[in-house]
Specification:
The protein is an alpha/beta fold and 376 residues long. Helix content is 40%, strand content 15%. The chain folds into two domains: 195 residues, Rossmann fold (3-Layer(aba) Sandwich); 167 residues, Glycogen Phosphorylase B (Rossmann fold, 3-Layer(aba) Sandwich), CATH 3.40.50.
Length: 376
């Protein structure tokens, strides 16, 4: 099966959720026999050498490029046609709605086109922009892509329901291909290993809370600010508190028990230093990859319901949830501080959940089964 992936944005920075999703799907599809991947992308990923790369931006590389202009880029459609004819493409997967306008003429080739609408763009646009014109334009573009594609992917049943609500399309045309994590990379560690890791950073006597995220993503920026505001209240309850923020948040604070780190190259090796992960997210769509990474790393989690939205976690079994960032949120953190056995139980059950449902390798196998419905 020859599959052409199209993306109008760089996927070389694996610190973003959308880049990680595309990278992991492609990487794990390549473990399946008789699958060949062709990728039209701005930048080559150095460790995926077994797939073929193409770029449609050479002619306009001097422009300040934004993804949305791919809908009006004649060089892109020209490159796609070249690839289709030369490599006998069986199926096209377009990431998000970017560039879909110039895919519509390809329908005459009878090649299935799948849209990976991994969150609900219109909802996300409403949360991050007050510009009604931008919201309506994104609604129009995404509806066009969803309506004219062969099939639509999304990451949760909640997003599937919202896509159906906004675009009024047959639910059978939408499949949930969830986000996940690399369970071979993100691993839990035992108590002695955790102590050694804490000693390495001089934190062996600290109770460590952790949060990470890309600061250009507004829900993450808001979460960083929220944690700073919560810090004094938490310090009153937890005398040996240490808060670690990863993602280079540009926020002023004057607490010696808060440490800020830039994005880490080896996040998986550092995360297990934490005793508890906190996710005070109140906005956004799709699912938060950080939740999967914490679960896989054996870190008990305190989150808002919004932060864990779309993920099959149960409160008090895999995670502790609160409706808002209020006293309940703080109480859940304090509960885990006082109850080591509770932390262990959440960690064990959380790790088991990602191994069973949210392993990228298993997710990619389900995606391949979906492809087989369209390629005979």
């Amino acid at each position: 099966m020859n599959i052409l992936f199209l993306t109008s944005f760089s996927i070389s920075d694996l610190k973003t959720g959308r880049a990680t999703r595309i990278y992991q799907l492609i990487k794990n599809l390549l473990y399946i026999k008789n699958v060949s991947i062709y990728l039209l992308t701005p930048e080559k990923l150095p460790d995926l050498n077994c797939i073929s790369y193409f770029s449609h931006r050479d002619i306009i590389k001097r422009l300040n490029y934004i993804s949305i202009i791919d809908d009006f880029n004649p060089f892109r459609i020209q490159k796609i046609l070249e690839i289709i004819k030369k490599y006998d493409i069986d199926l096209i997967q377009n990431e998000y709605f970017y560039g879909f306008l110039n895919l519509i003429p390809l329908k005459c080739y009878k090649i299935p086109i799948i849209i990976d609408d991994y969150d609900v763009p219109y909802l996300f646009a409403k949360e991050i922009s007050r510009n009604i014109l931008i919201q309506k334009y994104i609604l129009w573009l995404d509806k066009l892509a969803v309506t004219h594609s062969s099939h639509v992917l999304t990451v949760s049943q909640i997003d599937k329901a919202n896509i159906n609500k906004f675009y009024n399309i047959n639910p059978n045309k939408i499949s949930v291909i969830p986000n996940g994590t690399d369970v071979r990379k993100f691993k839990n560690i035992n108590a002695n290993e955790k102590l050694i890791l804490k000693q390495k950073f001089g934190l062996e006597n600290k109770f460590i809370l952790i949060f990470h995220g890309a600061p250009f993503h507004k829900p993450n920026r808001d979460a960083f600010k929220t944690i700073i505001l919560l810090a004094p209240k938490l310090k009153q309850k937890i005398q040996n508190l240490q808060i670690i923020l990863i993602g280079n948040p540009y926020i002023d604070y004057n607490f010696d028990y808060i440490q800020s780190f830039p994005p880490l190259e080896d996040l998986a090796s550092f995360l297990p230093i934490a005793d508890v992960a906190i996710v005070p997210i109140t906005k956004g769509s799709g699912t938060r990859l950080k939740i999967f990474e914490y679960l896989a790393s054996g870190i008990p989690i305190v989150s808002t319901k919004k932060g864990a939205e779309g993920i099959q976690v149960e409160n008090d079994k895999h995670i502790l949830l609160s409706d808002n960032i209020d006293q309940d949120f703080i109480n859940n953190i304090v509960l885990l501080y006082k109850n080591e056995e509770k932390r262990k139980n959440l960690a064990i059950k959380g790790r088991k959940l990602v191994e069973e449902i949210y392993d990228w390798r298993k997710i990619s196998q389900e995606l391949y089964k979906l492809y087989q419905r369209f390629v005979r």
